Fold this protein.
Amino acid sequence: MRLKITHRTEYHYDAPVQYLLQRLRLLPLSGHTQTVASWTIGIDGAREEVRFSDHFGNDTRLVSAEGGHNTITVEAAGEVTTRDTTGVSGPHRGFAPLWLFGQETPLTTAGEGVKELVATIGAGTDIERLHRLMGMIGERVAYKLGATSVATSAEEALVQKSGVCQDHSHVFAAAARAMGFPARYVSGYLMMDAAVEQAASHAWAEAHVPGLGWVAFDPANGISPDERYVRVATGRDYRDASPVSGILLGQAQEKLAVTVTVEQ
C-alpha cells in the first residue's frame, strides 16, 4: 500500500523565545515492513543544529531557536510503501543490545496491576499468550482522549482504566517484559478508515519472540499492525521514541497545534 503522510506541528508563544532546543524523530526508515519513497522535514522559525542516528537506530535531529520568534513550525511529509507482514518486523538490529529491552523504565514498571494482568493470561504458545495480552489490555484500559499525559505510567493507566495508544503500549511493554519477552515502544502513523485528518501520530508495541524476531501488537485497535501502519521510531518507552521533545527557557507561554493526515 502506498501511503501519503503529512505531520505538521506548530508552536505559538505569547512572547519571543529566549532559547529553545527540540529533538525530532520524524523520519521513517526503509525496512522489513516498509520502503520510504520520499520524505522531507521542513522547519520554520528554528534552525537544524545536528542530525544523527541514536542508539535505537532512530533518525534524530536537534533544532534550536533563540530571540525574536513567536511561532515555530515543523512539517514532516512524504510517501511510504508498506507491506503486510502479519505484524512481524524482523530480527533485532542496532547498537542497543536486546537485553536492554527487557528492563523496566519509570513509565513501564510492573506494579500490582501489571502483575495481576500477567497472572491471568494463562497457557499457550508465545504468540497466543501475547495476542491474549493485547486483547486484555484493550478490555481493561478504555480509549479516552485527555485521560492521561505523557508522564502517565503503565500502572497508573491500569488503575484508572483509561488512556490512549501511548498508555496501551506502555502496559503491553511492561506486561510482556514481566512475561520474559524483550519489548519496545513504537511511534508512527496509522491510516484510519473513518478519517484522513488526525490530532496526533500513533503508537503501538513490539515483543521479541524466539524464532520470529520482533512482532508488533496494537492494543488500542486489537490487531497486529498491517499495511496501514508506518513505523518511525522505537525505544524502551515514549520518552525514547517521541516524535518531538525539548526544552524551553524563558517566560513565554506555549500553545501547541498538531495536524496529521494519512491517506492512500
